[in-house]
Structures are given as structure tokens and as C-alpha cells.
């Protein structure tokens, strides 16, 4: 009995080689192997074309891919520069906001921050080491010093929170939340041109530290929510 032709294995065509993907992988490997850091210059377009044996359009497509991820930037008349370290295994999740509606974008960001930052505080309370606590308290003391001296402490506040994220020993907490702050870097320097933005949250940074030091995950969540609730109130009030 003859086998039904429909039962025969299917021979599928070979996939088309994605040259742009190969170029992005090659560039990522080069950055890693050369140990390039943020601010370092990448090889010129012609050099990449010759080394990788591809056309200009393929190189530019790969460059656009990395630009969209916020990994590199091209400076007219100067060249292409690395903004963040990258390797083939690096996962990049660029954020996109409608800058024309800053208030709404900030509130949307805050909704996401609540989930991530509360979890970060809880994880930090469970995983922090003695060394982590020393670093967090150093950042907190500096934040309090500057706040009492100037009435505001934006950069020091950020340094405190980054130290908390580091205490989770999960690098994604710091990367995600730092990226959100970077997106609004100029805004956070002088939010709504108000030096008193979120000033009322100042005392809760000490109680957040106390909760983390005590290993109390639930208390860390509660204190984080107190800080973010004040941030939300001030965004709504000061953006009227």
C-alpha cells in the first residue's frame, strides 16, 4: 500500500538571513569584547562596512535599532557614541512617554512605580546585608543633611532610593526605576519649578530605612506607599 503523499515530511525553505540582526549581534559582541563604556566612540560607518562586509543601509538599520533602545547616539560631524554598555545577552526595554502631556505621563509612571518600588522595598527588607544597610544609611544621612540645609534634596533622594534597589540584589529594579527617572531628568531637577515638591515625604525615608533594617517587608511596603502617595498628591496639586 502506497503511503499517502500528505504524510511525507515537509521540506521547508531555508530562512532568509537577517543581515541587520547579524550586524547588531556583531556590534554588541564588539562592545563587550572591547570593554567599551558609556561615552566611548564606536567605529566609523565605513570601517564597519568593510569589517562586516555589508552595505551602508544594513549598518544604518542596525544603528537605528540601537538608537531606538537608547544604547547609542549619533552626533553630527563627530561619530556614534555608546550611551550604555551592551552585549548580545542584554535586554533593553525602552520607555516611551507623550511629553506634550507631562502631568498624565507622570501619573502613569507613578502607577507603574508603585508596583515596582513597593516590591523593591519588600525584597530589600528580606535580602539586605549589613553592608547594604551601611550604604543606605549613608545615603539617607546625606539626603537629610542636604534637605535640612536647602529645603530640597533631589539628587540625594535618588541616591537613597537607588541604594535601596541595590539592596534587592536584583539589578532589574535599579535599571527599570533609574530609567524612569532618567526620562524625566530635567523635570526632577526642578519639578513644576517648586522647591517644595514632595517635601512632606521627607520623614518617611527614615521610617522606610528602619523597616528595611528591621527586615519588615510589610512595613517597607507601607512606608514606600506613603512616599509615593505624597508624590501623587503634589503632581496633581502643582500641575493645576
From TrEMBL:
Key words of the record: DNA-binding, Plasmid, Transcription, Transcription regulation
GO MF entry, a single one: DNA-binding transcription factor activity
Gene3D superfamilies reported in the protein's UniProt record: GntR ligand-binding domain-like (1.20.120.530), Winged helix-like DNA-binding domain superfamily/Winged helix DNA-binding domain (1.10.10.10)
Domain HTH gntR-type residues, every copy: 17-85
Keyword Kinase: no
Presence of keyword Transcription: yes
PANTHER family recorded: TRANSCRIPTIONAL REGULATOR, GNTR FAMILY, UXU OPERON TRANSCRIPTIONAL REGULATOR
Name the record gives this protein: FadR family transcriptional regulator
Organism listed in the record: Rhizobium phaseoli
Amino acid at each position: 500500500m502506497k503511503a499517502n503523499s500528505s504524510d511525507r515530511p515537509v521540506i521547508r525553505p531555508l530562512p532568509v538571513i537577517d543581515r541587520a540582526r547579524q550586524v547588531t549581534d556583531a556590534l554588541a559582541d564588539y562592545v563587550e569584547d572591547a570593554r567599551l563604556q558609556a561615552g566611548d566612540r564606536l567605529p566609523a560607518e565605513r570601517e564597519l562596512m568593510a569589517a562586516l562586509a555589508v552595505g551602508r543601509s544594513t549598518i544604518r538599520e542596525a544603528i537605528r535599532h540601537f538608537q531606538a533602545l537608547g544604547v547609542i547616539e549619533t552626533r553630527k560631524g563627530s561619530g556614534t557614541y555608546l550611551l550604555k554598555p551592551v552585549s548580545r545577552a542584554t535586554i533593553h526595554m525602552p520607555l516611551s512617554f507623550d511629553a506634550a502631556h507631562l502631568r498624565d505621563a507622570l501619573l502613569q509612571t507613578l502607577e507603574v512605580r508603585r508596583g515596582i518600588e513597593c516590591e523593591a522595598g519588600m525584597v530589600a527588607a528580606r535580602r539586605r546585608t549589613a553592608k547594604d544597610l551601611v550604604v543606605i544609611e549613608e545615603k539617607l544621612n546625606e539626603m537629610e543633611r542636604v534637605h535640612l540645609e536647602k529645603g530640597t534634596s533631589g539628587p540625594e533622594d535618588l541616591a537613597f532610593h537607588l541604594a535601596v534597589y541595590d539592596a534587592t540584589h536584583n539589578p532589574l529594579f535599579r535599571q527599570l526605576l533609574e530609567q524612569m527617572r532618567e526620562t524625566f531628568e530635567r523635570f526632577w531637577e526642578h519639578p513644576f519649578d517648586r522647591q517644595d515638591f514632595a517635601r512632606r515625604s521627607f520623614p518617611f525615608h527614615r521610617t522606610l530605612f528602619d523597616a528595611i533594617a528591621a527586615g519588615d517587608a510589610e512595613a517597607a511596603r507601607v512606608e514606600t506607599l506613603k512616599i509615593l502617595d505624597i508624590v501623587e498628591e503634589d503632581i496633581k496639586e502643582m500641575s493645576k
